[in-house]
Amino acid sequence: MAAAGSGATSGHENWSSRSAFILAAVGSAVGLGNMWRFPAEAGENGGGAFVLFYIFCVLLIGLPVLLSEVLIGRHGQASAPDSVRKVAEDSNASKSWSLIGSLGVFAAFLILSFYCVVGGWVVYYIGVFLGDLFQTGLTGGAFEGRAAEDIESLLPGLFGNGSLMVGLNLAFLAATIFFVARGVSSGIEWVAVYLMPMFFLLFLGITIYGAFTGNFGEAVGYLFTFDFSKLTGEVMLAAVGQAFFSLSLGVAGMITYGSYASRNTNLGETSGIIAGADTAVALLAGLAIFPIVFAAGLSASAGPGLMFQSLPIAFQAMPFGSLIGLAFFIMVFFAALTSSVSLLEAPTAFVKDRFGMSRAMATLLVGAGAAVLGVLSSLSFNDMADFRPLGFIPLFAEANFFDALDGVTAKLFMPIGAIMTCIFVGWVADAKLIDDENGLDGVLHQTWRALVRYVCPIILAVILFFGIFG
Ligand code: PHE
Fold first, then answer.
1. Most ligand 1 atoms within 8 A of CB, residue of 121, 248, 284 to mutate
2. What is the CA radius of gyration of the chain?
3. pLDDT of residue 11
4. Tell me, what's the pLDDT at 183?
5. How much distance in Å is there from the Cα of 245 to the middle of ligand 1?
6. Exposure string (b/e) for 162-201, b if CB count within 10 Å is 16 or more?
7. Is residue 31 in contact with ligand 1, taking CB distance under 6 Å?
8. In ligand 1, which atom is closest to the CA atom of 342?
9. Model confidence pLDDT, tens digit, residues 141-173
10. For the chain, which ranges sit under pLDDT 70?
C-alpha cells in the first residue's frame, strides 16, 4: 500500500523518496521524444536553427513552465484538474481554471495513443536483433552480409504490415497498462528507479562509439550551425512543440507527478535537474544518430524513421553489433515505457478521482480508449495512408491520422496549455502560495516570476500565431 498523502485528498499516493520523484519525472521526460522525435524534427526543420531555438525554448519557456506545473500538482495533491482547482480555490479565483488540467488530461490521452504505436516499432526492433543474434552469433556485427538499403527497408517493411503494426502497438500499450495498474510506488517508480540509470550508461557508450566511427564533424556542424534565415514561424513552432513534448509539458503529466511529491522536495532544483537531463539526452541522441546518417549517406530529413534506420546500420559495423543493438532497443523500450506510463497516469488519476473508480478499472478504461485511437494511427501507415483527417487546416494538410495527432498535440494543445498555465500561475494564483511552493530565492525567483508572467506567454502567443498563420 502506498503511504497516505500529506495534502488535501486523503489516500492520495506519494513517491517513496525525493530521488524516486526525480527519476520518475526524468523517466517521463526522457523517452521517444528525445531519441526518435528530436532527431526527426531537427532533420525536417533544417538542423542548426531548429536545435538552437529548441535549446532557447527549453531554458526560457520549458523550464519555467515545468516548475509551474509540478508546483500546481504539489499544492493540489490530486489529479491535474483537481489540483488546478485547489490552487484556484486557495487563491479565491474561479474554479473554471481547472480546464487547464482537463485539456491536459485529454491531450495526454491523445499522445498516449500514438506514442504506443512508436513503442511498438521498438518492440519490433527488439525482435529483429534477437533473431539476428541467434543467426550471426555473439561476436560479429549485426545483419552479416546484408546491404545498408536492406537494413533501412526493415521499417517500411513493418509499416506495410497493418496487422503486425496493430499487434505491436497493443503489446506496448498492454505493458504500459500493467505498470500503471500497479500504482505509483510499486509500478511507476519501479520502472524508473531500476531502468533509467542503465539506459543512461548504455546510451552514453553508443554516442561515444558514434563519435569515433561516424561523420562526427559534419553532424556537429549540421546540428549547431545557426542559420538565421532558416528560422521561420513554422520552424519556431516545431521547436517549441518539441521542447514541450520532450519535457512532458502542457499535458497534465507533470502536474500529476508533482502531486505525488512530498512537501520537503525543492521543486525549483528538481525542475532544473529534469530539464538538464532531458536536454542532455536529446543532444546526445542527435550526436549519436546524425554522424551515422551522414556517414551512411542517408537523408537527414528522413523524418520518423531516422533513429530506426540509421542506428541499425551502425550496429552492423560494430563488434558485438547484434548484442549491442538488442541491448540498445531494450533500453529505448524502457525509456519509452517510463514516458508512456506518465501519459497513461495523468488521465487515469483523473478518472480514478473523479468517478471514484479503482486504479485498475480506471487504467483499463483509459487504456481501451487509447487502443481504439492507436489502431487508427497504426493503420495510417498502411491501409489508411491516404486519409487526411485535418486536410482543411493548412498546417496539417498533409498529415495522416498519426501525424495529425502528433501535430495537434505538440503544436496546439501543448503551447495553449502552457500559455494558460503561465497566466494562471503568474497572474491569477495567490503570489504567497506560489512563493511557498517554488523553492527559489532572490534573483532566481524574480527571474522565474518575470518569465512566467511576461516572457513565456508573450513569446508563446507570438510563435503560435506565426506558426499557424505565418
Ligand atoms: N516526454 C516524453 C518523451 O520525450 C513524452 C511525453 C509527452 C510524456 C507528454 C508525457 C507527457 O518521450
1. 248
2. 21
3. 66
4. 82
5. 5
6. bebbbebbbebbebbbebbbbbbbebbbbbbbebbeebbe
7. yes
8. 10
9. 788 888 888 998 999 999 999 999 999 999 999
10. 1-11, 470
Q: Measured between alpha carbons, how far is 117 from 94 in angstroms, rounded to an integer? A: 38
| DSSP state string for 369-428 | HHHHHHHHHHHTTTTTTT--TTTTSGGGTT--HHHHHHHHIIIIIHHHHHHHHHHIIIII
Residue 216 CB contacts under 8 Å (≥ 6 apart), including other chains: 210, 287, 291
> For residues 227 and 139, what is the distance between their CA atoms, to the nearest angstrom?
43
Q: Is 375 in the pocket of ligand 1 (CB under 6 A)?
A: no
Summarize pLDDT for 242-270 with one digit per residue, the tens. 999 999 999 999 999 999 999 989 999 99
**Which atom of ligand 1 is the closest one to the Cα of 336?**
12
In this structure, are residues 288 and 206 in contact, taking their beta carbons and an 8 Å threshold?
yes
The C-alpha cell that represents 186 in the structure block: 510499486
pTM score > 0.85 for this model?
yes
